[in-house]
Amino acid sequence: MAFGLELIILIVLGLVALVIVFYVISVFNGLVRLKNNIKKSLSNIEVLLKQRVDELPKLIESVKGYMKHERGTLTELTKARTEFMNAKTLPEKAKADGIISGALKTIFAVAENYPNLKANENFIQLQTRISGIENELADRREFYNDSVNTYNIRIQSIPDRFVAGMLGYTPEELFKATEAEKRDVEVKF
Question: How much is the pTM?
Fold first, then answer.
């Protein structure tokens, strides 16, 4: 009789251990999936940022002749493009991105003062292309932030918190608007 009870206890302990192992594996796989979604969404943002940065020299060339009084904005845009190309970390890229976004808003707003520029086909195409990229960037940033938020909630919630802690998972940073992006565009007539 004692042998049968010991066997039942061993089977129950084995089943409990098996459930714990499967649970840990499930949490691990879920966190890996979330982490990879974050990396993928950040890569998608970087692709669009690169496309926008690649369009900037064409935009600068197309407006240079018209916007003689806006040299500071064009210089700022060129400098921000260089900063973005040299940026290694997410905060550095976000900072350069904010400067570029602010300068683009200024250029497009100031273009209203230049009827010939507004009618220039190259400028219109570039403005449409860059505006489209800006909209895609907003969507991708939202997806990135949703992925980061889901991941951060998972690694901070019990019982996943214990598994995440054992695996060394730490919270990810949200993609935030920079101060330059929050400011109103100043248009001088």
Answer: 0.69
